[in-house]
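dumping the sequnces here before i forget
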Amino acid sequence: LAKTTQPISMDSYEGQEVNITCSHNNIATNDYITWYQQFPSQGPRFIIQGYKTKVTNEVASLFIPADRKSSTLSLPRVSLSDTAVYYCLVVTNAGKSTFGDGTTLTVKP
Amino acid sequence: SAVISQKPSRDICQRGTSLTIQCQVDSQVTMMFWYRQQPGQSLTLIATANQGSEATYESGFVIDKFPISRPNLTFSTLTVSNLSPEDSSIYLCSVEREQGDEQYFGPGTRLTVT
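..and the predicted 3d for all of it:
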């Protein structure tokens, strides 16, 4: 399983765009990238998933360069309620994945 | 999406006893998993619960300590046996509708061992 590396923490202000980058140098050809969000005392919640280039949904965008050794989760115009831990996972085609240490995002007023 | 409930939501147990945690999904799913999350830390996969057969355990986790059942496609139990204070943690159930799909997580069970 490919190991992921993320910044331990990030600070931002309301209304800003936040970009969280994850490194996954050992990603295999058939692996894909998934991001989860976790609030205190709750289970993680799926945000977005992608294989290459760019994926966008109603809450975030995911940018994956051609070599796929990293990915960037982009959260547009964050609010206080986006304060959470964000996890980057590499998922194999057999469905196996490992949670890394996550990035604690703190959004300030 | 999938709606997942876990029982109990929290419990305080004495060392040497066991706790069984139930995970119920509102629809049939292919994959069910059990995770452990210690305070302030990330999630660690304990095992994959296989319907009708023995669970598949990750390195460092054994069946004698964490017996798992999965009698059908909507229900699973995790037992944490012979409890010690080091077992104090949050235990989470997750599911995938189909293998490789996004995972949906339950609310977790907070276990405290005294």
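Chain B has a mean pLDDT of 94.
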